[in-house]
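DM from R.C. (forwarded with permission)

"hey, sorry to bug you on a friday — could you get me a structure for this? deadline for the figure draft is monday and I only need the backbone to look sensible"
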Amino acid sequence: MKLTDRVYLIGGAAYGLSAQGDCNVYMVDCGDGLAVVDTGGGHGVPDMLRNMSRMGFDPGKVEVAFNTHCHYDHIGGNKLLKEATGCKIAAHQDDRWEIENLGPVSLYNMALDNGLSFEPTSVDISLAGDQDVEIGDVSFRILHTPGHTPGGVSFVVEEGDAVSLFPGDTASALGRLGFINGPGFVLPEWKRSIERMILVKPDRMFPGHGVFVVSSALEQLNLLDQNMNSPWVNIEVMQGYSYKKF
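My reply, with the result:
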């Protein structure tokens, strides 16, 4: 599914593009190469490869698959995608161990409960944040945006006059909150990460779940910021509840 001149949605259970358990999976056309943002829950990689081919792209040109964070529904396809395309896996250094060992913060036990299983693979590019990664003629600005997990990252890509943000699960459209109070969750860090994304002033936002927006992304982030700072969120978190709002 073409979203902009460079950004494509190649996977996502919610859109019927790939297997159950997959987050939104994006591909960025970088001219001479391709990049993928997240790899889903592990069972949808064949669908993603077919989708890329149907849109006229050669999966063998995928150079890097970025993981926005270590949760299973974003890393499950790492090994299969790497084997199929020869790409490198890139993730933040603070989530690297979880990705490579399927530790408790990866929520792999939840994957098993949902009928998903996969093998991990090594992270080839360890990100620190506050850096740029060049792929073809596209520059990916890496922002360390912890809170959802310790090594959460967001990616900023400029396309003409438009700024696109790939926030993983740190931000969603419509002001909806993600997985609250799970392993690795730190509310003050999450709030600061949202504030940092607001400073980017994105026009477009391509989150890990739910709808994407191709305009007025800054308004969506401001709404999320308001919701994250509402009294009921802080009360629920302090009482130890966990819930999803997608």
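R.C.: lifesaver. The chain has one domain: 7-238.
me: no worries. Residues 7-238 form a domain with the Metallo-beta-lactamase; Chain A fold (CATH 3.60.15.10).
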